[in-house]
Specification:
- By secondary structure, this protein is mainly β.
- The strands form 2 sheets. Strands 1, 4, 5, 8, 9 and 10 form a 6-stranded mixed β-sheet that branches. A 5-stranded mixed β-sheet has the order 3-2-11-6-7.
- Strand 2 and strand 3 form a beta hairpin.
- The longest helix is centred in the first third of the chain and has 5 residues.
């Protein structure tokens, strides 16, 4: 039997059970992007949901702001292994935006200003799991964090929460996005450490 010095294991943090495997806590909000930061004026911003049948639903910035707002507090987990707990947002639930969308599609491809894409099962956008977020920590969402608005899907790794979101295309078949075609996991569950293809 090995001998372990008293205190060698360290002290358990109260929030350890909120950290997925392999993650460490940060207090700041790291900025990681696949390309340059798009600057999208609110008067030119729009968000769309396009169905598999070709019908498109559109919202201007003012129309988005007129919809019911929610203020979720969620934990964020980045594939680069940092986690930030209790982040405070304001935005519109995807449940609200999908209310009048008729679709039988199981898959969604998210599009961003700047050309970024990521794929998600439609079920991961509904039932209180996702928002179009436009405020962070009581302030307008800064461009480097995806402002004026980003997708927020906190139960998956953060690359699925597409910054500078401009639309969702609903699909009958899955279509991998930017990082997924570059070798990242197709789904990205932080609790299963689904970082890369094959995980």
């Amino acid at each position: 039997m090995g001998v372990v010095s008293r205190g060698f294991r360290g002290r358990r943090r109260d929030d350890d059970d909120r950290l997925p495997p392999g993650q460490y806590l940060v207090e700041d909000f790291p900025v990681l992007s696949a390309g340059p930061t798009p600057r999208v004026p609110r008067e030119r911003w729009e968000f769309t949901i396009g169905t598999e049948s070709g019908h498109t639903h559109r919202w201007s910035w003012d129309e988005l702001m007129a919809l019911p707002q929610e203020t979720p507090t969620v934990d964020l987990h980045c594939v680069t292994k940092w986690s930030k707990l209790d982040t405070r947002w304001q935005g519109v639930s995807l449940d609200v935006l999908f209310e009048n969308v008729e679709s039988a599609a199981d898959h969604a491809l998210i599009h961003s200003y700047g050309g970024y894409t990521t794929n998600l099962p439609v079920e991961d956008l509904l039932d209180g799991k996702a928002w179009i977020a436009h405020r962070f920590d009581s302030e307008e969402l800064a461009p480097q964090h995806g402002g004026p608005a980003r997708l927020l899907v906190p139960h998956l790794y953060l690359w699925k929460s597409a910054k500078w979101v401009r639309g969702i295309h609903l699909l009958d078949e899955d279509h991998p996005g930017f990082w997924e075609t570059a070798g990242y996991h197709n789904y990205g569950d932080p609790w299963r450490e689904q970082r890369y293809e094959g995980d």
